């Protein structure tokens, strides 16, 4: 089928574009800021990212500042945004880019940077450098599936939807303004072509939408059935000293919550922990650990984590690799899973 005119979407975008903090008025967007916004927005809402984006820029205003910062500062600033591998990749990418001395300016060369995947490379290339490529996030996949009435389910249909989305760059209007066109697709999916009850009457592409003509727009894109997530269990130990400070450790650099602060505890496993077998994992021996009521739950991509918390009073120096931290500072620096655990001690 012939795709609807890119010019119609761009005209709509010029009237209705969202006012977002990472969309400056400059005709030449800063690739560092574009990259940062795209990384932050992955798996996170615009509402959550807005204030955190401004705060992150205040602390790391440019590529060199981020590259020179120690990981501990980056991890602290990222705490609460989730999907912490993004922060590790961002930091590693900043150091690689600083060593290069400049940003690559095509999707292909951007993908050579550690931690930059196909979507982010396409987004930076289109928005920051005006390259004729369409970054296909969830919004773009949804719009594309409906315009073309593509019924194959996700995730298997991702390649097909990406190929269809790239077809818009065959139109002169899209090629002339690839950054605006990409952001117009984002805005259309976020505000009009929404997952539920899309506002088709307001859509600039309603006449060219095959799914709307067939009355199946709310059924697309289809998704393969999800498998039930397994459950893992952990026990953690919150030691509090006489000044009310908390004893925290840092997780290994690789793996889940890599490099982030944590309340020390057992490994996470598929079966529950008895108190006696969990106690050898306590950070300080010989304390009168008391179990707090309730459990904290946190959903990762591939499993659900359930954690219990034990607490005890402690004194003296912190064990090697750990440190005492003021309670409020700890809550600000801990990742979301650990904050939920800490809430049991409130």
Description:
With 346 residues, this protein is of the alpha+beta class. The protein contains 16 helices and seven strands. The strands form two sheets. Strands 1, 4, 5 and 6 form a four-stranded mixed beta sheet that branches. A hairpin with a 4-residue loop joins strand 5 and strand 6 (304-313). Helix 2 crosses helix 3 (46-59). The termini are far apart. The relative contact order is 0.12.
Task: List the topology elements.
Elements: H1 6-16, H2 31-41, H3 46-59, H4 63-68, H5 71-78, H6 85-100, H7 107-110, H8 118-129, H9 138-147, H10 158-166, H11 172-176, H12 178-191, H13 210-213, E1 231-240, E2 246-250, E3 261-262, H14 275-278, E4 290-291, E5 296-299, E6 304-313, E7 323-325, H15 327-333, H16 336-342
Parallel strand pairs: 1-6
Antiparallel strand pairs: 2-3, 2-7, 4-6, 5-6
Helix pairs in contact: 1-12, 2-3, 2-8, 8-12, 9-10, 9-12
Give the amount of beta strand, in percent.
5-15%
Global geometry: elongated
Poorly predicted runs of 5 or more residues: none
The helix/strand order is: HHHHHHHHHHHHHEEEHEEEEHH
CATH class of the largest domain: Mainly Alpha
Structural class of the helix and strand makeup? alpha+beta
Count the DSSP helices: 16
Please state the average pLDDT score: 94
The whole-angstrom Rg is 24 Å
- The percentage helix is 40-55%
Largest sheet: 4 strands, mixed
């Amino acid at each position: 089928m012939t795709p609807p005119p890119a010019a119609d979407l761009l005209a709509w975008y010029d009237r209705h574009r969202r006012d977002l903090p990472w969309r400056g008025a400059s005709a030449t967007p800063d690739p560092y800021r574009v990259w940062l916004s795209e990384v932050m927005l992955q798996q996170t809402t615009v509402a959550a990212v807005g204030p955190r984006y401004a705060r992150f820029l205040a602390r790391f205003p440019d590529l060199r500042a981020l590259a020179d910062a120690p990981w501990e500062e980056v991890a602290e600033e990222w705490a609460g945004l989730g999907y912490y591998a993004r922060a590790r990749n961002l930091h590693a990418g900043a150091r690689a880019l600083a060593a290069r001395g400049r940003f690559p300016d095509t999707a292909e060369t951007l993908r050579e940077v550690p931690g930059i995947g196909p979507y982010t490379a396409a987004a930076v290339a289109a928005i920051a450098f005006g390259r004729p490529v369409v970054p296909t996030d969830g919004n773009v996949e949804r719009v594309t599936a409906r315009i073309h009435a593509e019924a194959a389910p996700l995730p298997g249909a991702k390649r097909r939807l990406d190929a269809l989305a790239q077809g818009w760059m065959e139109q002169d209007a899209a090629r002339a303004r690839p950054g605006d066109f990409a952001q117009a697709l984002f805005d259309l999916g976020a505000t009009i072509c929404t997952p539920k009850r899309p506002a088709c009457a307001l859509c600039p592409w309603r006449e060219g939408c095959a799914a709307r003509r067939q009355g199946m727009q709310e059924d697309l894109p289809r998704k393969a059935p999800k498998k039930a997530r397994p459950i893992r269990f952990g026990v953690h130990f919150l030691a509090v000293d006489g000044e009310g400070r908390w004893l925290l450790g840092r997780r290994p650099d690789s793996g889940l919550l890599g490099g982030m602060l944590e309340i020390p505890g057992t490994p996470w496993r598929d079966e529950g922990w008895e108190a006696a077998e969990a106690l050898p994992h306590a950070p300080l021996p010989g304390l009168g650990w008391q179990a707090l009521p309730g459990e904290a739950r946190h959903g990762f991509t591939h499993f659900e984590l359930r954690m219990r918390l034990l607490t005890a009073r402690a004194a003296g120096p912190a064990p090697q690799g750990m440190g005492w931290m003021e309670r409020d500072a700890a809550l600000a620096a801990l990742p979301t899973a650990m904050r939920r655990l800490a809430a049991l001690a409130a």
